[in-house]
Each structure stands twice: as structure tokens, then as C-alpha cells.
Design goal:
Blueprint: H1 4-16, H2 19-26, H3 30-44, E1 49-52, E2 55-58, H4 60-89, E3 92-96, H5 98-105, H6 109-115, E4 121-125, E5 139-145, E6 154-165, H7 167-170, E7 186-189, H8 194-201, E8 212-215, H9 217-225, E9 231-234, H10 239-244, E10 248-263, H11 270-285
Parallel strand pairs: 3-4, 3-5, 7-8
Antiparallel strand pairs: 1-2, 5-10, 6-9, 6-10
Helix pairs in contact: 1-2, 1-3, 1-4, 2-3, 5-9
């Protein structure tokens, strides 16, 4: 078989009737097209095209090859289009933490589905950081402390972080410093180290193991409201409960928690772009 580039160059020449226009079609110089045609003629040992006035005329052999190439490249185009449509139609796999899914994403999904009904979402709430390629995910909504945020991260939300508990649990407990919370029961999302890391950042030296119950993030707030323990969370997730007095906030930190959008490098498929753009639009509204 001759070079596919040479065949494509000849097909472009037969389509345009000009070395210059063929080069423009292929985004190469006309000299490059001429070189490819010469290589093709040398391969077949026949002349395929000749100058005719200001244009190019195909020989009988050239017209025969051009006809078959047109059919071949058209079939290739159909195959590429079919596979592209298949990829666009498959569900978009999205991973995020359970608490983010419950508190932020799920209440907004109806808007996305009404505007992009052709995109099917498959959500995978998990406290673990998954590998997009190995785990078959398309989009990850990930969390980071601001100081540890990856360079060039596609920021979605910046949040205030607080410790919260019921008045019943924290009343009567001295809360003048983070060390005062060592002896209280804590609730923490599976797969994270949020509570030990919180004490480390505040320079607290532990004199005993922490009382931590780990569970999926979407179960934590119900347990907090039952006074099963205190937790470290985003103020925006519990704003109404704090305002009503149902929960008490302790040691607030402003603008330190970040959720960001992570996709595979160079993944420009329409469903991925649509979902990422929609996420950013919802972030701007909130």
C-alpha cells in the first residue's frame, strides 16, 4: 500500500483541481502536495495528473483512482462519525463525594436534564479519589484545601469550613480552643482524614485516640442532628441549621475549602464540555 498521506493528498487534488487549494484543504503547502503526488506516481509507475491550462487534469488512471479513493474516504468518514456518535451517546460517568452529591449536585440536576436531555449521567458518589482511566470515569468533582489546590485547577466552589454540633452535645463544653474538642465524639466521611488533619493544622497534640465514627458523607448530617457527634463540614451545607439554632458552629474558617472539576487531559467530547460548562454556570448562580 502507498502512503495514506499520499492517497489523501491525491484525493484532495482531484476534489479541488489545484495544488494550492488541495494544500489549503489539508493545511499543508502546495509543494508538499506536489511531493506526495510524485511519490504516488512513482509507486504506481503511472502519471496520475497533468497541468491543463491554469488547472490540473487527471489522467484516465488518475480518474479511476480518484473515484475509488472518494468512496473509500467517504466510508472512513461514516465509520468515524458512527463511533463519535456512539461515544457521545454513552452515559457520562461522574464521581464526587456523597455529601457534595446530596447537598449541591442533586438539587440542581433537574436543570441540567431539562437543558441537556441527550446526555445521560451515571453518578458514582464515593469518598475515595478514583483514577478516571482505571475506574472508567469521565468527570470527577474533587475536594482540596485551598493551600493544596493543584495548579491550574478548574475551580467550581470555594467554601467556608466549620465544626458543627447540636446545642445539646456542645452545651456545657468549653470551646475556647480546638483542643477542647478532643474528648467529643466525631463523625467523619469514609475514605478521608478530615478530623485528624483538622487537629494537626491547629497544632493539637492528642493525649488519647480520637472518638471517630466513619460513614458515607450523605449520612453524617442526620447523625449530627441526633447528637451522635460533631463534624467538620462546609458552612454552606448547614447554613439553614446554623441560622435556626439547630446546630452550633465552632472555629469557622473562611474560603479554605475548594471543589474543582477534573477531566482527562484533552477530553473535548461534547457531553463532557456540556456538563462542565453547566457546573460552572450553577456555581456562578450560587
Amino acid at each position: 500500500m502507498p502512503s495514506l498521506n499520499a492517497l489523501r493528498a491525491f484525493s484532495a487534488l482531484s476534489e479541488t483541481g489545484s495544488y494550492t487549494k488541495a494544500g489549503e484543504l489539508l493545511n499543508v503547502t502546495h509543494a508538499a502536495v506536489m511531493q506526495q503526488i510524485k511519490a504516488l506516481e512513482a509507486f504506481f509507475d503511472v502519471q496520475l495528473a497533468a497541468r491543463s491550462g491554469r488547472g490540473i487534469a487527471l489522467t484516465d488512471e488518475g480518474r479511476m483512482l480518484a473515484r475509488d479513493l472518494e468512496a473509500g474516504f467517504r466510508q472512513i468518514g461514516h465509520g468515524v462519525e458512527a463511533l463519535t456518535n456512539l461515544q457521545d451517546a454513552r452515559p457520562l460517568h461522574v464521581t464526587m463525594s456523597p455529601v457534595f452529591a446530596v447537598k449541591w449536585l442533586m438539587p440542581r440536576l433537574n436543570d441540567f436534564q431539562s437543558h441537556q436531555p441527550e446526555v445521560t449521567l451515571l453518578l458514582n458518589p464515593s469518598g475515595k479519589i478514583v483514577d478516571l482511566d482505571k475506574d472508567g470515569m469521565d468527570v470527577a468533582i474533587r475536594y482540596s484545601r485551598l493551600e493544596a489546590l493543584p495548579k491550574d485547577a478548574n475551580i467550581l466552589l470555594v467554601l467556608d469550613l466549620v465544626v458543627v454540633g447540636t446545642p445539646k452535645l456542645v452545651s456545657g463544653v468549653k470551646t475556647t480552643s480546638p483542643a477542647d474538642l478532643v474528648h467529643l465524639p466525631w463523625l467523619m466521611e469514609l475514605g478521608t482524614r478530615e478530623v485528624p488533619d483538622w487537629f494537626d493544622r491547629h497544632g493539637v497534640k492528642l493525649d488519647r485516640p480520637l472518638m471517630i465514627s466513619q460513614m458515607p458523607g450523605n449520612l453524617i448530617m442526620d447523625a449530627v442532628k441526633r447528637s451522635d457527634g460533631i463534624t467538620y463540614t462546609a458552612r454552606q451545607w448547614v447554613h439553614e441549621e446554623i441560622q435556626s439554632g439547630e446546630l452550633v458552629e465552632l472555629f469557622p474558617e473562611e474560603n479554605v475549602g475548594v471543589f474543582f472539576i477534573h477531566t482527562r487531559p484533552g477530553d473535548e467530547r461534547p457531553p463532557v464540555r456540556k456538563f462542565a460548562n453547566w457546573l460552572r454556570s450553577q456555581s456562578n448562580q450560587s
